[in-house]
Amino acid sequence: MALLRLLLLLVSLIPSYCCAQGVPLCPSILLFYKEHHRSGIEQLQKAAQLGFEQVNLVVTLRCEIDNEGRVLSYGRVRHGKYRPLTNFSLTAFRRELLATCREAKRLDLRLSILPHLDAAGEIYEWRNHFDFDPLQFYQGQSYDQAMLQSIASALNGSGYGEQEVYFALSGEMGRSLFIYPDSYAAILKQLRTDPRLTGIRWGISLNFSEVAGEAKATAESGPAVQRVIDQCDFLGLSHYRPFKLPARPEHFAISAEGFLAELAEHQVEFPESLELHFSEIALGGGGADSPVAKTPSDAAATPWEGSADPRKNPWDTPEMRTLRVGFHNALLEYLADPATHHATLKNPVTAAYLWNEGSWDPMDLAEDGFADEEITATIQQHNEQVEESATDRR
User: Which domains, and CATH codes, for the chain?
Assistant: First the structure.
């Protein structure tokens, strides 16, 4: 008994970081998000050169919507003009997607997948407010066929089908999920039985707030969405919650728990078997009415705002750069051991992905002019320490 007490005492004296379950911070590869993002190959190569071993492939299709946010067609933008998908343009989309996945495979990168729809045409609206059934055909194409089946074919054709790939059915499209949960459940059931995709981990990603978009809660919607979540392996969130200065690790824990609390208000509980991912996280430096915030407090109030124009760089002043460095340091401190920052969440965040566009991106993966070498080096050091700790545990 005395020996047992001594062993327990020695264990209690071991620093907590020795047992920390750290999470790497990985980049996103933007495929077709903007018209000049026609190939993810160069972005993948930059990510590999910076030492990253996993990336989040954000695959974007455009759509035309009406004044109520209802999808009318799916398409692509070429030379500044929206064009609905044809067999020819869908084939080109799939060819470019396959080439990107094959390059990721050549570079030996692990993948996560995050599909996006963005409005084009005459009416613009945020994807979280889109009304579309993923199984319904709009001008000859469905979301399932054009987006999800295209990605599945690319994963299979590049050798990823039997590997562990985290594949979200959608990102920030809560209205669609809460209006058409049965369609998402049917898609998940079909994909899970696809013999080409035995290694895939399935999930869905929502915004940090307004999780249901503009969908009106009903007595049936929450339980129906719960049935979708219960089929998933992970749940993601886009993390752009406003924060108070200075940025602290606890902010990210509060945001994750607030996200799950809002889901619970819609009668959707987070199963303990699920993983929780930050599908997107970043600080853009923009203000409510400008791509360049006037003060650090303004930028902290709207983390989702930023600039894609290097001539309008939010990080040019010492005060704003201090904010940027502090935000990333706080995020990395949280990711070093998320469990220590949560009081109630039993299965905290297990993956996190930066949004690598313009002023949100300290690495300049997709655009040039916003890089911060100090932040990039700190992220690299963090990821190396996480990998070393994981190796020691193995």
Answer: 31-393 (3.20.20)
